[in-house]
Amino acid sequence: MDFVEEIIKLTLKEDIGHGDITSESIFPENHKSTAVVKAKQDLTVCGERIVEGFKKFFPEIEFVIFKKDGEEVKKGDIIYSLSGKTIDLLKLERSFLNFVQRLSGIATTTKRFVKELEGSGIKILDTRKTTPGMRVLEKYAVKTGGGFNHRFGLYDGVLIKENHIKAAGSIKKAVDLCRKNIHHLIKIEVEVENLKQLEEALKAKADGVLLDNMEIEEMKKACKFKKENKFFIEVSGGITLEKLKELKKLNIDYISSGAITHSAGVVDLTMLIT
Asked: Are 187 and 151 a contacting pair, CB within 8 Å?
């Protein structure tokens, strides 16, 4: 069982428990229906991995995909249809919608950010600020919306942050220790809060810096260092659609935003038996 299936299994156990007493009281086991999932607003859809996961738990349900992941859907459009035992359809309804609404919310929000950055060459990244247990799916939704994934966890990328620096004693010490203990294919990025820290990171030969919560004017000064140094710049902290209008004018490479996951919300979908 893969990670997505494990999440779905837990979700179904949470909602169904030992059975759906309402549906099982009304319908015989062999009663069948067809249902459609419709958009109640404009959105970018994300849910094919959820469809594949639910097929494993409801093998007798036939799923038909009308709108593929990444497609922009209009209010009233049918996204999926589901056919099979009525009891099964009613058992999966809430859990299925919860997943697709959440992931489509992230994809929709990400798409807005991506569109705002069009033509700039800057990539929008997610962060580790994800719902516990949902990171794989939420990062999948970011990619569906046209964004890019930052590191998946502490295990697949070096990012020296404020607490690392304080505990190590300095940026140089933290960078030197990382360089000593990691292999040559891993890049080292340092989070900096001001130009002095930026200079320290460059002297320590960091591969890139994350400008954390800097003012626009200070970011502009930071970008000037790229004329004499080869490194990448990531910007993070309080990223909004409005703020992107200024950031996309800068000579930066990446913008990371926790908002595209933790504040994306859900889109409005409905599942109706036809």
From this structure: no
d(CA 274, CA 262): 34
pLDDT digits (tens, 9 = 90+) for 127-181: 999 999 999 999 999 999 999 999 999 999 999 999 999 999 999 999 999 999 9
- Domain ranges in the chain? 3-114+265-273, 116-262
Predicted local distance difference test score (pLDDT) of residue 192? 98
Residue type, 46: C
Measured distance CA(265)–CA(215) in Å, rounded: 27
Of the options 1.20.120.140, 3.90.1170.20, 3.40.50.300, 2.30.22.10, the CATH number for the domain spanning 3-114+265-273: 3.90.1170.20
Which residues participate in catalysis according to the annotation?
94, 129, 161, 191, 212
This prediction has a pTM of 0.95
